Amino acid sequence: MKKQLNILLIIALFYNTACSKETPIDSSDQKDTLTIVEAFPELSFTRPVDFQHSGDDSNRLFIVEQRGVISVFQNDEKIAAKTAFLTIEDRVEDSDNEEGLLGLAFHPNFESNGYFYVNYTASNPDRSVISRFNLSSTSPDEADSSSELVLLEYEQPYGNHNGGQISFGPDGFLYIGVGDGGKGGDPHGNGQNRETLLGNILRIDVDNEEGSTHYSIPDDNPFVDNTEGYREEIYAYGLRNPWRFSFDTATEQLWVADVGQNSYEEIDVVKNGGNYGWNTMEGFHCFKADECDQENLELPIWEYDRDKGDISITGGFVYHGDAIEQLQGLYVYADYVSGRIWSLDFSDPENPINTELFKADFPISSFGVDQNQEIYICAFDDNIYKFGLE
User: Fold this and answer.
1) pTM for the structure as a whole
2) Within a domain: 1
3) How many domains, the chain?
């Protein structure tokens, strides 16, 4: 994610390449026209960066504000008040750029154990922190801020490319998106260095402790018991800044939107042990030279360039809600700067179809889904939006 004034200098976008096509949406043969509406007109949020539900059928929503606050409220468009679920502003380093409280994930058994997890940046030293908190014993809408259990910390050499997404996969393990450490061009070569946690998707088992850590390594992580010094938490590597990722609830595929450098943004369907190319590649293209070794690299399923004013990809979800039939099974995503929102039909991998749905007039920081799998949009005009029909 990018500071609005800085982003034009530090990230890239993605657009269609050969063998794929992009089309504008045509609603002429549809009964209803797709639109975007404010989901909760009476509420506002300061730089909302994540949108989650707790998976307990309570119909509650949780909005993460970058400054270090998580709010909770009922999923009702007429709701007029929200409650502070967790406030940790005193622990969070928020430079109003790419740092702050960036991600939230509820344990699959949250209803019984009250555990949830956050990803935030802290200072002295500058680092990312993955922590577990407990629900308060006195209120289902409050967390116990004193219950923090730090699972994992890793140094951040610069203030950008912190990643931020955390999510439980269908296997019950916690996945963590970690950027390459920042600045530009991956100056430390972290993307291809498996001895660091930077530039990766990590996967850990939070239900079992191992040694001095409050987690263990899943048996099928790709570098379990390696002798080369590779970090065993790594699930996939070669990523620049996987700001947002999600699992397709129908196929269980992991969709990762990786923010580019100067020219291309990309979407990857990530698999165990895959190398996604950064900083050898940017999208489908060699990053530093006309020729580069692409052997054993996993190339994106889609990319876009800067030709239409797009700058930074915001990953979304494969839609499986009931409200918008025309989006069923499509990956919905956006560009943070341009506000363009697309759907990607990847049902035929040889002929993916990318369709522009809207050009919003607000920066899109993140997407989320409610317990019914309906998609919502977090925007830096301090509102939450959703799709509708008119």
Assistant:
1) 0.93
2) no
3) 1
- Residue 355 is assigned to a structural domain of this protein: yes
> What are residue 257's phi and psi, to 5 degrees?
-100, 115
- Please check whether residue 2 lies inside any domain of the structure: no
Tens-digit pLDDT profile for residues 356-389: 999 999 999 999 999 999 999 999 999 999 999 9
Task: Give the domain CATH number at 300.
Answer: 2.120.10.30
Cα atoms in the Cβ-side hemisphere of radius 13 Å centred on 286: 8
Report the distance separating Cα 346 and Cα 65, nearest Å: 32
What's the rounded Cα separation, in Å, for the pair 144 and 63?
Answer: 17
Q: Which domain holds residue 201?
A: 7-389
